[in-house]
Design goal:
Number of helices: 5
Radius of gyration: 18 Å
Strand order of the largest sheet: 6-7-8-9-10-11-12-13
Shape: globular
Oligomer: single chain
Distance between the termini: 39 Å
Number of domains: 2
Largest sheet: 8 strands, antiparallel, barrel
Structural class: alpha+beta
Number of strands: 13
Amino acid sequence: MKTGFTSCFCLSLALLFASSSPAFTQSQQDDTSAILNLVRRDYGPVYSVVIIDNYATLDYRVGQNSAIVTLKRQNNRWKIIDGRPRKFDYCGEVSCLVKKGVPRQIANQLLTRLSASYKRQSNELKLFQQAWSKIHSSAISFLGYWDNGTFPTPSSILTVSILPSYTPNKVCVVGITENSQYVEIGRVFGKTINTENDKLSLGKDLSGVYDTITSQKRELDLASIAPPNNWYFSRETKNKLQQAGCTTSLPNKR
């Protein structure tokens, strides 16, 4: 199965979305929301968005595959100019984007900043986990936004977000498919999370380097962890997380 995806905590929002100006303005946030709405169906979980002037690029992942989508703003509306849903034939070079009508300098900046976002995400994730370590010493490795490595079907889980609460070792597990979402409360015991409907286990991939999570009852092979986000959380999901005391934000200073 596969789970979907949503938006990130406030600190990482400014870092994940590079733009031509240093501050992340309301206008840029509106642009990002409009772009995410264009690709929320048929593509896959978005990991980063770069906006420069009237052009934007993003990367998304589906199963073990990743791809890039490039957009142009015309008449105050964003339009996809490259990157078909899950076809993985996209412009990953400056010369290709230039042929699509993107000015060479902007094309170079888009791809450079998109590439740099991977390192920023890794740093953001570490900061997030470290910030919660005093409350969740044994749950830190679980926290984040996980890709499901099984190639999706409409009913399968695309991504899983594992979010902290202020109760030690209590977490929320949010799974998102293309058509639905679920929230489960979990308790962390060593390298496992027990929820009312499942048991998640933390392990390593075949290389022994990267963390993975598997499920006892669902078709999950979670990897490619990134900072928590809630871009695609429904209002119902947000309400459930609030009631459970879980968050995508950094902990309050107490």
